[in-house]
């Protein structure tokens, strides 16, 4: 009841300042098109083109049954519930916790507040993805690799970012999890064929690929984009050199991830930190990595904060800068010139890299 009341009150407050939950409305419109077998991917939708895989439109069909306001209120309330569940699950599964649960909870709300507000106000879908991916990490920790493979595959249909965990899963759990992963992915890709037919489904998948690739370049310099590709494009302008440096940076972050995995025998429970590291990489590796996707990095922020007293002063400074550049570059907290100056120079990208580097350092010191 508390979550229901909070959801309704929060939705009412959001609607005072926003006409709609725009990121929720995009897939809801796609679901209405799905019902009448229309094209889901339309360039005329411009910035608000549907970019999810076709099966996601089918999953959104129940939200077309009530009126728009009722559907938005329902999703907002579900998002509040998922936010509570994600924070609670991340806190309770943090290995060898050093700080009190109450202190960590408040610090989590402080550091994640910017991303949580955006998730709720936009009607985004990062929280269900976060729950699935964290669930996959916990399943792997408990020796349930097959379940982890299925959960990652389910995450792909919310956002393909989920694929970043697949190499980690194979390295740590072997090849068997690929079977449920492949089965869920194939079933999800084939699902729209029940409604559109095989040729119609192929056309949808082609439309999805075209939309994702065609919208990457126009969004590269968007202020909210914190990907490594965006960072280098800001620093030296878009072009072949920026693309090459971005690719090199991506390879470096992945290699660092493999270093983290190789040192897993140095700690009692390695899975949580490894999952947290790859969660941070999601907005950095995706060319359209929006800043609010860092909500997925909640376990990473928790780990860095919890191990604060075990960290050297230099790395405390690095982590603090990471927190400031990701969590506190907020328009309402800064003057307009400073806010846009920091965004134009990729503060969010640098901050996320510092958080990822802090996790690598924790594993190097066998602290996590």
Task: Chart the SSEs and their pairings.
Elements: H1 2-17, H2 22-35, H3 54-59, H4 68-92, H5 101-122, H6 126-141, H7 145-156, H8 166-173, H9 178-190, H10 193-214, H11 228-236, H12 240-262, H13 271-285, H14 298-306, H15 313-327, H16 336-344, H17 347-364
Helix pairs in contact: 1-4, 4-5, 4-6, 5-14, 6-7, 6-13, 7-9, 11-12, 12-13, 12-17, 13-14, 13-17, 14-17, 15-17
Characterization of this structure:
- With 368 residues, this protein is mostly helical.
- The chain folds into 2 domains: 1-215, no CATH class; 221-368, no CATH class.
- The chain has helices at residues 2-17, 22-35, 54-59, 68-92, 101-122, 126-141, 145-156, 166-173, 178-190, 193-214, 228-236, 240-262, 271-285, 298-306, 313-327, 336-344, 347-364.
- The longest helix is centred in the N-terminal third of the chain and has 25 residues, at 68-92.
- It starts with a helix and ends with a helix.
